[in-house]
Design brief:
Length: 201
């Protein structure tokens, strides 16, 4: 994992991202940016492995990432995909400082803006307004998990795939079908049959 030099362009997207939630002064954004570590990460790099304590929340400037766990049968179960303008972390491990049961892996070469636990504490102490930003991030994450759970219970395979393609159109084009199948809770072979049936309609 390589740390790169900082520039105004590097922080442009994340500053726009946080400013949608709450107005920040130029001085506040400058302090925020100073606490971020800019990292370039190669494809197929593990940012977190099972058993490690997650020590970061990372905003994705460029690239695509997946988080997953290994189930009791030894199969990968994908929990999340994340692309540009999204954050990635194991929230429970990060906040509770407990070993993670997840893997977080880059699917493409990535540029990340990383906030460590220590840096986040410093940020919240100096600019309490950021509490609102991170609270809303957690709320959005919970809403997304709730939507996914309801889909798992109520939708058939075709509906799940169509919903995924509609909600995450760019991800569907960038991620291998094998990973999409895992995210949707089906085999790659079954997903292939689903796509074939939909193509004929």
């Amino acid at each position: 994992m390589k740390t790169t030099s900082n520039s105004e362009e590097t922080f442009l997207a994340i500053n726009q991202h946080v400013s949608k939630t709450c107005p920040f002064t130029e001085a506040e954004l400058t302090l925020f940016n100073s606490l971020l570590e800019v990292r370039t990460v190669k494809k197929k790099t593990f940012l977190l492995q099972q058993g490690e304590v997650c020590d970061f929340e990372a905003y994705i400037n460029k690239g695509c990432i997946r988080s997953y766990y290994i189930n009791e049968n030894g199969f990968e179960v994908i929990l999340q995909f994340a692309v540009e303008d999204w954050w990635v972390s194991d929230i429970a491990s990060f906040h509770e400082q407990q070993p993670s049961n997840q893997f977080i892996e880059t699917l493409e070469d990535c540029e990340l803006l990383v906030l460590t636990g220590e840096a986040k504490e410093q940020l919240l102490q100096q600019i309490p307004k950021f509490e609102r930003l991170f609270r809303l991030m957690v709320q959005r994450n919970l809403a997304s998990l709730q939507h996914r759970l309801m889909n798992t219970i109520s939708m058939n395979a075709e509906e799940k795939y169509l919903d995924f393609s509609k909600r995450y159109p760019t991800i569907a084009q960038r991620v291998p079908q094998l990973h999409i199948a895992s995210f949707l809770g089906m085999s790659a072979e079954f997903l292939s049959k689903v796509r074939t049936r939909l193509a004929k309609k």
